[in-house]
Amino acid sequence: MADTAAIHTESHVLAMAQPLLLDSGRSLAPVEIAYQTYGRLNAARDNAILVCHALTGDQHLASPHPKTGKPGWWQRVVGPGLPIDTDRFFVICSNVIGSCMGSSGPSSAAEDGAPFAMRFPVITIRDMVRAQVALVDHLGIDRLHALVGGSMGGMQVLSWAANWPDRFGAALVLASAARHSAQNIAFHEVGRQAIMADPEWKGGDYYSEAGDDPRKVGPESGLAVARMAAHITYLSEQGLTEKFGRRLQDRETKTFGFDADFQVESYLRYQGLSFTDRFDANSYLYITRAMDYFDLAEEHGTHGKPGNLAEAFAGLKARMCLVSFDTDWLYPTSESRRIAHAVNAAGAPVSFVELSAPFGHDSFLLDVPALDRVIAGFL
């Protein structure tokens, strides 16, 4: 793990001068993009790596989270001498629009000064990337050395590859997919309904009681249940069995009640409740919807008909590496293999590897030495 004190780290917020045009046909204004950088941009401005975060991630890639105090979500990967080496690279990570860690989202102030709430426009993965392109332009970087992202971050990398293929030299996609499946949409809908069924959601207008922090009020119970349901999809049966099995939580016998008798129940309740301390419920609605709308082949079809996925990568010349995990049932290996075939059919250089890890979808965030070797070798 990196010594964060040894990394040159800066935090900024970019206020865009112009509205951001969206896939829906609407525009977003005002637009702010919160981001952090690690390392230093060289004189040639050609050593920049953009890391794209997942659904509930943020820009605090390799520095402590300001709300929870926990280490950065990829601190074991980003830093001096680590797979993404900040002695060599200038690493950028921005909070996606729609989120709640400084970039414009439903908890942000609209032009009238009141929180957007449900007036915030529905966004797409491509809209998130449009904001990132504006940030990279602002930083004076014509071409990124590489893009890296896992899960929803991988979707952003794929959107870059399909829509801005000449702006980077390499793309690393971890545990991701080129479209959201019916099963994934279904899990997200359960979470959204849990939030909207909570009486404290109030149609999304719960910010008036929030003071300075929208995460302190609102549909906390619904958001906790949404997180619990989603968290199950990030794990694997093997991992759950090894970590919890059917072991009881701080007791020798069952209570014959509805308390958390089992360790796995207690674990999920903790995951749900702790999530409400750092995330906004409306942001969860908007970001899951953006993921559900993601379908690269559909985006690049003609005359209203979905295209072949290879057509999405028609302009790609940069090299791409796809990584999947054998216990990931949320974005299984078949999804990464489908992308690899499409990139190959488009004539771009591509490599693909399936790694073995017991952690399920979350493997890309956890200690998997084989992944570290892939990242370092590819970059």
Write the layout of secondary structure elements.
Layout: E1 9-15, E2 20-21, E3 27-28, E4 32-38, E5 48-52, E6 78-79, E7 84-85, E8 90-94, H1 125-138, E9 146-150, H2 152-163, E10 170-174, H3 182-197, H4 220-234, H5 237-243, H6 263-275, H7 281-293, H8 296-299, H9 309-312, E11 319-325, H10 333-345, E12 350-355, H11 369-378
Parallel strand pairs: 5-8, 5-9, 6-7, 9-10, 10-11, 11-12
Antiparallel strand pairs: 1-4, 2-3, 4-8
Subcellular location: Cytoplasm
Keywords: Acyltransferase, Amino-acid biosynthesis, Cytoplasm, Methionine biosynthesis, Transferase
Domain AB hydrolase-1: 47-210
Q: Quickly count the helices.
A: 11
Please identify the top-level CATH class of the largest domain.
Alpha Beta
- Count of individual beta strands: 12
Oligomer: single chain
Sheet-strand content, in percent, reads 5-15%
Give helix and strand order, one letter per element, not per position: EEEEEEEEHEHEHHHHHHHEHEH
Radius of gyration: 20 Å
> Residue share in helices?
25-40%
List unreliable stretches of 5+ residues: none
What would the CATH topology of the largest domain be?
Answer: Rossmann fold
Please identify which CATH superfamily of the largest domain we are dealing with.
Answer: Alpha/Beta hydrolase fold, catalytic domain
Q: Distance N terminus to C terminus?
A: 19 Å
Summed up, the domain count is: 2
Overall structural class, as computed from helix and strand content, comes to: alpha/beta
- For the biggest β-sheet, the strand order reads 1-4-8-5-9-10-11-12
> Architecture of the largest domain, according to CATH?
3-Layer(aba) Sandwich
What is the 3D form? globular
User: Average pLDDT, to the nearest integer?
Assistant: 92
Largest sheet: 8 strands, mixed
